[in-house]
């Protein structure tokens, strides 16, 4: 289920994106019994720094629901406020979006997406 998905968010501006989770045949995967979490970190996956921002369905920055016209809760939507991008700050980071159980522990094979997370100065797209 994992995919490379780079994110570029402008500093001080709300940002949103979504991830549709499908199986190898392209069928939507029911995520209704899971939670989701992503940490935005400096460094790299091989040498991660401390989390600059944690987003999850508990703090409302991630939601799991069916996509428009769908009947299966297979879409994870990330919604960041302007304050969230200010908290992270301008620069190059990375993130990993994972499925977690009710205690916040990542589930086996629960990596949904991983990629660069870049916060750009407002008004610039690099």
Automatic annotation (TrEMBL):
<protein>
    <submittedName>
        <fullName>Uncharacterized protein</fullName>
    </submittedName>
</protein>
């Amino acid at each position: 289920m994992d995919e490379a998905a780079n994110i570029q968010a402008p500093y001080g501006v709300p940002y949103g994106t979504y991830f549709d989770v499908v199986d190898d045949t392209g069928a939507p995967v029911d995520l209704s019994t899971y939670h989701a979490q992503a940490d935005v970190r400096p460094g790299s996956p091989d040498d991660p720094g401390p989390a600059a921002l944690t987003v999850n369905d508990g703090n409302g920055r991630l939601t799991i629901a069916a996509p428009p016209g769908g009947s299966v809760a297979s879409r994870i939507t990330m919604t960041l406020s302007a304050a969230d991008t200010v908290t992270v700050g301008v620069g190059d980071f990375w993130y990993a979006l994972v499925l977690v159980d009710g205690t916040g522990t990542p589930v086996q094979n629960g990596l949904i997406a991983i990629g660069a997370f870049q916060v750009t100065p407002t008004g610039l797209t690099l």
